[in-house]
Design brief:
293 residues; alpha/beta; 8-stranded mixed β-sheet; 8 strands
Length: 293
């Protein structure tokens, strides 16, 4: 699906002076409240487009809400913004309230897992503007010490080198790095890579990439807050994982599962870092089973 096609699926909402791109399968006022809500949080450095293959099957059972975080995809990419996970969480909550989301099950992938664990940390402390019915995490490096970061990630988060690396980045390098995240690189169509790159670089996306990449520092600074939120939570927790992820593989999922009381774990063999794109049917079936419990 092209960037233009995906744009036609969604709308823009202004939240605290910033424009967020949102795809809401229950946007029709008559549909709101008729289905339970599932909110999806996307990963780095891509966008809500990651869910285009699985959205129809999910929307058959849920009101699905997915947005581009600030700095990503079709949302604003401001220069005067911290790109901290705390602010991204603020915007997610304000957006959901604007859309009339009162309760939701939360699914988060990669970068989105830090937003989800910040939500959970607030929930554990009694700050609950939106009712969280469950939280499911997918292939994220909340346990940052266990992640096998790619060299490009390490360079981009460097305050000195990051802007230069971002400015010199090319689609050829991007394509090569993305294919390495798939267990089966042939399952990643060039058309998808073209769309990812277009959404990443549009509206000055390269210039904000170093700021966004500093979320990896947040994962160090707030390790106790976010890992602690998972350990302390009494909400239904689940982990849905691509086993062959070269950054955060099966071992990371097993650590999360072991330390989160009562959590559930589903591992998808022969799948890499983006299971919703590499194995959409298996991923959807597994997620729906976890949510139904």
């Amino acid at each position: 699906m092209t960037a233009g096609d995906w744009r036609e699926r969604g709308t823009f909402h202004t939240v605290h002076g910033r424009s967020l791109f949102v795809v809401d399968s229950g946007a029709d006022a008559d549909a709101v409240g008729k289905k339970p809500t599932l909110v999806l949080l996307h990963g780095y450095p891509t966008s809500s487009h990651d869910y285009y293959r699985v959205l129809p099957d999910l929307a058959a059972r849920y009101r699905v809400v997915v947005h581009d975080h600030l700095g990503f995809g079709l949302s604003d990419k401001p220069q005067d913004y911290s790109y901290s996970i705390h602010e991204q969480t603020d915007f997610a909550l304000m957006l959901w309230q604007r859309l009339g989301v009162r309760s939701a099950q939360v699914f988060a992938h990669d970068y989105g897992t830090s937003v989800a664990t910040e939500l959970l940390a607030r929930w554990n402390r009694g700050f609950r503007p939106v009712q969280l019915d469950s939280v499911t995490l997918c292939n994220g490096s909340v346990h940052i010490e266990l992640a096998r970061l790619r060299p490009i990630q390490k360079l981009l988060r460097n305050r000195t080198l990051g802007p230069l690396v971002a400015r010199l980045s090319s689609q050829r390098v991007f394509d090569r790095n993305m294919r390495r995240l798939w267990h089966d690189p042939t399952a990643l169509p060039q058309a998808d890579l073209d769309t990812m790159w277009e959404l990443l670089t549009r509206d000055g996306g390269k210039t904000v990439l170093p700021g966004i990449t500093r979320y990896l520092r947040d994962r160090v600074l707030y390790w106790h807050r976010w890992v602690g939120a998972l350990r302390e939570s009494r909400l239904p927790l689940a982990f849905l994982w691509g086993a062959e992820d070269p950054i955060t593989g099966r071992d990371v999922a097993e650590v999360h599962h072991a330390e989160a009381p009562g959590s559930r774990l589903t591992v998808l063999d022969d799948v890499g870092h983006y299971p919703m794109l590499e194995a959409p049917d298996r991923w959807t079936e597994a997620l729906l089973a976890l949510l139904a419990r």
